[in-house]
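Notebook entry, cofactor series.
This is the third protein in the set we're modelling with a bound small molecule. For this one the ligand is 2-acetamido-2-deoxy-beta-D-glucopyranose. I'm keeping the input format identical across the series so the outputs can be compared line by line later. Sequence and SMILES below, as received.
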Amino acid sequence: MANPRLRALTWWRKWAKRDWAIVAVGFTIILFALTLHFDSRNPATSSTFDLHSTDDLVPLTLLHRAKATGAFCLDGSLPGYHFHKGFGSGSNNWLLHIEGGGWCNSIKTCNNRKGTALGSSNYMERLVPFSGILSRHPSQNPDFYNWNMVKIRYCDGASLAGHPESEFKNGTELFFRGQLIWEAIMNELLSLGLSNAKQALLSGCSAGGLATLIHCDDFRNHLPKDATVKCLADAGFFLDEPDVLGNYTMRAFYHDVVELQGVAKSLHKNCVKRMEPFKCIFPQEIIKNVRTHLFIVNPAYDFWQIQNILVPVDSDPYGYWSSCRLNIQKCNSTQIETLQGFRGSLVNALSKFQKNKEGGMYINSCFIHCQTWMDDTWHSTNSPRVNNKTIAESVGDWYFNRKVSKQIDCPYPCNPTCCNMDFTRSL
Ligand SMILES: *[C@@H]1O[C@H](CO)[C@@H](O)[C@H](O)[C@H]1NC(C)=O
Ligand SMILES: *[C@@H]1O[C@H](CO)[C@@H](O)[C@H](O)[C@H]1NC(C)=O
Ligand SMILES: *[C@@H]1O[C@H](CO)[C@@H](O)[C@H](O)[C@H]1NC(C)=O
Ligand SMILES: *[C@@H]1O[C@H](CO)[C@@H](O)[C@H](O)[C@H]1NC(C)=O
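Returned structure with ligand:
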C-alpha cells in the first residue's frame, strides 16, 4: 500500500462500491473505477492522480465506549475513527472529517453494505492516508496542518442519523444506530481534548457532507461558548431535482432511507413539522435552520449527482446519455444545456445562503465530486482555482475571517484549472 497510485485505485474502488449502493444493478461501475484518469485536455492533471508518497498513514481506533450505548455499525460491529494529534499552535484546534459513501435504502442494500467497510468495521482498512484538508504538511494544508485531525468512519448507511426504534424486531439483523454513533464519537473526542477546543471545524464529504449539515449545530453546542466553531460540507449539497425523464428519483431514494432508518428524529423539528421528513434531509432545507457558520464546497457538475440524480441509469434506457454522464467532454450541446440547467438549480438553491454574511461557498465548474480531502483538488499547484483561489485558500479566508469567500465559477467549459473525471477510459 506504499504505492500512491495503488492507494488512489483503492480509493476509487471504494467509490465504486458507494455508487453501487445506490445505482441500479446491471451497471458495472467497478470496471471503470480501475483505470481512472483526469481529463487529458488539461496537461497539468493528466498524470492520474497522485496522493503523494509523503502521506501519513493513521491507524484506526475502534470506539470501545460504543458498547455501553449500543452505538453499532449496520452489522453490530464497533464504529471507528482515525486520530492524529495536533501540535504547536494547533494543539487546541480540532478538525473533524466525516467519511462519505452513499446510503442504503432497503433491507437488501443495507444487508449488502454489512459486508463492506461502509457497514462494518470488520472490513475497514486499519491505516488510512491523511491528505488534503487532513494533511499535516503546511505546503498542502496551509491553515490546518497542525490541528488535531480526526477522520470519522461511516458505517451506518444513513449519514450518522439512523435510530434504533426503526430496527426490525423479526430476525432481520440490521442495526440503525447512526445517531448513537455520532453521540459516542463526540463523547470520545470530547474526552480526548475536544472539550477544550479554541477553534474547531466539522467537515465531511458526500454522505459525510450531509452528516456535517445534519449535526453541525449539535457539534457547536458541545464546544466551549468562546470557541470558534464552523462547519464545511463538501459535495454534500444533494439537489431535490427530477431526473431527465421527470421522475424524482432522488426524492424517492431519500424517502426510503429516511423511512427505513427513522432519520426524521435527527432532522430539524421546524422542518419536520411543516413537511414530509424526506424533504427535510435535502441540504436546501437543512441550511435554513443551521445557525453555525457554514461553508459549502460543491462542483456545479458533481458527477455523483449527474450519475444518480439527473441521469440515473434507469432514466436513460436508450443510452443517449451513456458517454456524457461519464465524461462531460462527451456531452453534445443539448446535453450541456441540461447540465447548465442543473447548475442553475444549484446556484438557485444557494441564492439565499449566498446573502448570509457568515457563510462561505466554493462552487466550481468541474466534473468531480469530493474535493477537500485530496491534495490534488484541495491545495496544490495543479488544483482547481476560481478567481485564482484554491479551495483551501477560500476555506481559510472564510474560517479566519480574512475576507469574504463566496466563489461561484463561470459555467462549463470556462475553467481550464478543473480536474474533470473521465469514467469512459476503461469501457
Ligand atoms: C422483517 O420485517 C420486514 C418489514 O416488514 C420484512 O421486509 C422482512 O423480510 C422481515 N424479515 C424477516 C426475517 O422476516
Ligand atoms: C419515470 O417516468 C416515466 C415517464 O414519465 C414513467 O413512464 C416511468 O414509469 C417512471 N419511472 C419510475 C421508476 O418512476
Ligand atoms: C444530443 O443527443 C441527444 C441524444 O442522443 C439527441 O436527442 C440530441 O438531438 C442531440 N443534440 C444535438 C445538438 O446533436
Ligand atoms: C495566482 O496566485 C498565485 C499564488 O497562489 C500567484 O503566484 C499568482 O501570481 C496569481 N496569479 C494571478 C493572475 O493573480
